[in-house]
Amino acid sequence: MTEIIETSTIIPSLVGVGKTDFGLLSAGNLRRTARELPHIVQWNGTQYLVGNHVEQYTNPTERMDFLRLADGPEARALTYATLANLMQDDRSLTASIEIGFPVEVMMDRPLATQLLRDLRGWLSGTNRFTVDGKEYQTTIEGIQALAQPAGAFFSWGMNNLTKWMRAMDDLDVMVGICDIGFNTLDIFTVSGGDIVGKFTGGDTAGIRRAAEALTRAVKEKYDVTLSRQAADRYLREEKPILSCFQGNMDLLPLKIQSLDTASAAIGDFIETLLGNGKQFRYLIFTGGGAEMIRTSLLRRYPHGQVLPNPVMANALGLARYGRRIFKTAQTVIGLDPGFGGFKAVSLKAE
């Protein structure tokens, strides 16, 4: 039997122009923990900081437009850093990629076609780049696109060998997938292998609404300006503490308030499209936002379920489906280029 090696990674979608080397400038030797640095990604004479802690070194770009998913230096830097993380100790990779786009993008044929064309334009073929001083080379043989929540569907129903692992009857019943990301809210419904258009749609109403609400609240109460990504990190922390001129301030009440506000808006959108959701045999929630507002979602839809590891479910399912599409590829990567984080899963046949 073929063995499938699974590797996964997630990189916060933060990119900026800057540096981490300040020469002999030093704060002394009083640091209590090891310093965590963003990735340094270089190609064709350009350099970008990517991922965690970028905001400590430069002002990160925070593009929220759909073109950012496949075009521009931000997408390229994030993709290269993601590929390098998947490669680990290897320096060369040949693979095919199944990428996920939001439902709203995939429903707009000209936009989806343009994004896929742009992505293939710079990523197909051989790419040479440097991440954290190490040189990498990738050869991307094929790139196909799928709706992001379709990845969650295949994560739910298919294994790494691309075999349907649920009851065969589950292929015929109506399954609704609600994918709550940082910037997008996607609802994708399938029945008998067909899309149910009545219950499929998308909106830019993801969990960033909570991040923006928290940003406004912190600015009003403490006169401190947070980036969306910094606010998102506080939302994910169990005990969020803001250190500012007033001391260490407990942000938990503001976090709860912000999540409640976003949860109400997200719930209203889902209810407008799906009603009470009882028409579905299975109602599935996925995405990082689903984990953050799990309690609220399941209170509204007690017959629903949040997928295990919902942050990575899309990428895993995209990789599984990609193995069916790219039949001769040894390595297939499922890439979920989210606005909150680039998630990727590699499935390599040994």
Task: Please give a structural write-up.
There is one protein chain. By secondary structure, the protein is an alpha+beta fold. It folds into two domains: 4-207 and 262-349, Nucleotidyltransferase, domain 5 (2-Layer Sandwich), CATH 3.30.420; 208-261, no CATH class. 33% of the residues lie in helices and 29% in strands. It has ten helices and 17 strands. It has helices at 73-87, 103-106, 109-123, 148-157, 208-222, 228-236, 252-274, 288-292, 294-300, 313-325; strands at residues 4-12, 15-16, 39-43, 46-50, 92-101, 125-131, 134-147, 174-180, 185-191, 194-195, 201-203, 241-244, 247-250, 282-286, 305-306, 331-337, 341-349. Strands 1-17-16-5-7-6-3-4-2 form a nine-stranded mixed β-sheet. Strand 3 (39-43) and strand 4 form a beta hairpin. The chain is globular and about 60 Å long. The mean pLDDT is 91.
